[in-house]
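for the writeup, i need someone to sanity check this before i put it in the appendix. the sequnce is what the collaborator sent (i think, or maybe the updated version? ugh). structure was predicted straight from it, no edits. if anything looks off just tell me and ill rerun, i have time this weekend
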Amino acid sequence: MSRLNGRVALVTGASRGIGRAVAVALAREGAHVVALARTSGALEELDDEICALGASATGGLARAERNITIVPLDLLDFAGIDRLGAALFERHRKLDILVGAAAELGPLSPLPHVQPDAFERTLALDLTANYRLIRALDPLLRASDAARVLFVTGGVPEGVHAAYWGPYAAAKAGLEAMVRAYSAEIANTQIRVNLVDPGPTRTQLRARAFPGESLQHLRTPKDVAPAFVELACSAETRSGEIIRLAAKA
């Protein structure tokens, strides 16, 4: 049996990369996926792919019964995030899985050269938008019998190699601290929240950060998606941890 039948999952950054692969993997396991991204065209392609999964498994279903709802939304529209929470309550009354996969690299530049609007945009998308998701969706997560929340982190070099990564590094450090605080706050609930560091993966963000890098040693988003499915299952008991996926052999 599919492990996520009857579960409702919201995935941000679902139009490409890790977010898209995770959305497909969750739907394949029976979850109803609410796929969120800025680009409606890519979301419609994802809709077709997931609907095809459902049709092949059941011999054809009405669109309303298939396992995806697409939500074209810019995560910098914070009021839109609040409206999304209200809409999910009206339709589903709960949220079982939240995967925050949307991210922006921001400028790779000496900090004194970073324009304030670029710095603020990077923090707004990579950190503040995730706070707004937690704020808007916490009541729905509490309504689940076993909510699982996953935020993507990692990708920040350490030591001397961290030079020029200031905005992105600050956002990810803030995200990790915030998620751990939230984990402590919901310790006596059925919610479990973790950070996932997928390691080097073939995404557009990594391609921007490391142009010309050989792809041979990099996993694809489809390679890492099964780990997200495992962490989204009700059997997962860890919370407040950074779960680092093993590197490609």
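The radius of gyration is 18 Å. Residues 116-142 form the longest helix (27 residues).
thx in advance!!
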